[in-house]
TrEMBL record:
Organism taxonomic ancestry: Bacteria, Bacillati, Actinomycetota, Actinomycetes, Kitasatosporales
Domain named DNA primase/polymerase bifunctional N-terminal: residues: 39-255
Organism this protein belongs to: Streptantibioticus silvisoli
Pfam families xrefs: Prim-Pol
Protein name stated in the entry: Bifunctional DNA primase/polymerase
Residues covered by region (Disordered): 53-108
InterPro entries, alphabetized: DNA_primase/pol_bifunc_N
Basic and acidic residues bias (residue ranges): 83-102
Recorded superkingdom: Bacteria
Length: 276
């Protein structure tokens, strides 16, 4: 009988690689569990309406390879193909300059200004406090960013991250009690008690000039909450939520902090009008 070359050989995975893969799997599971628990805490305990963000297009790389006509690596081979094939795949991931391309948003817009960090399907009006719906969303989409629909019972105001760090210290030096504060890669977001546009207008009318770097997240708006990962990076708490008298996070009135936010925003660059 003619011998088939290579038959009977067994491929053995390196022990170090197996351990590394196991740790990565545990990290992914832990991150997903934290997202789901955060969403359920917001909805069930705090009665904050939430929904999943659009997230990232995890199939983009495969789609790019398919559109370019490049063959996939043979099944069962690690790093298959010639050296040139591997170089081509690396170039598609990083671009000619060698800089790794940012993974795009899963929404239809190729030029999305806030990749991964906005509502799409479901839309913002689907935000809910129903724990069953929240559980279902993050079971089906465990990596989806956590979005908070602002208005009632929680609103927000945000400013550029550099100015935000300064104003937080200044407010605390004055003994001002802050509510939860979210830090994104580009913005500092202060969660506050609900406010109306009329109330906000009265407060801002006292100032000769209000910087456009300040943004107001009231009814019809949203913010991204920790521990989400967006196209810009990781979202975390700059100031953790602290329980108020009713067990929900304490939220200051916007009138208490808006003057210092305006002053801090005067010296801050505006940045992209949609960036988070």
């Amino acid at each position: 009988m003619r011998e088939i070359l290579g038959s009977g050989r067994r491929f053995t995975w390196p022990l170090g690689l197996l351990k590394s893969l196991g740790r990565k799997r545990q990290d992914v599971d832990r991150d997903r569990s934290a997202l789901r628990e955060a969403a359920l805490t917001c909805a069930e305990q705090w009665h904050w309406p939430v929904l999943p963000g659009v997230g990232h297009d995890h199939d983009h790389a495969a789609g790019e390879a398919g559109r370019s006509g490049a063959p996939a690596a043979p099944a069962g081979r690690i790093g298959g193909g010639t050296r040139g094939d591997r170089r081509d795949r690396r170039d598609r991931r990083t671009g000619a300059s060698g800089e790794r391309r940012q993974r795009p948003c899963a929404c239809p817009r190729p030029d999305c200004a806030v990749p991964g960090a906005h509502p799409h399907d479901p839309g913002l009006l689907a935000a809910t406090t129903d724990h069953r719906m929240v559980q279902w969303w993050w079971t089906r989409r465990p990596d989806a960013p956590l979005l908070l629909a602002t208005g009632d019972p929680v609103s927000a105001v945000s400013l550029p991250a550099t100015a935000g760090a300064r104003v937080l210290e200044a407010l605390e030096d004055l003994g001002v009690r802050l509510g939860p504060v979210v830090a994104t890669p580009t913005r500092t977001v202060l969660l506050v008690a609900p406010y109306s546009m009329e109330e906000l207008g009265d407060l801002l009318s006292r100032h000769e000039w209000v910087p456009s770097s300040l943004r107001y997240h009231g009814t019809g708006g949203y913010v991204v909450l920790p521990p989400s990962r967006t196209g810009g990076g990781t979202v975390c708490w700059a100031r953790d939520p602290q329980p108020g008298a009713d067990g929900t996070p304490y939220l200051p009135d916007i009138a208490v902090i808006v003057d210092m936010l305006v002053a801090a925003g005067v010296s801050a660059p505006d940045g992209h009008r949609l960036s988070y």
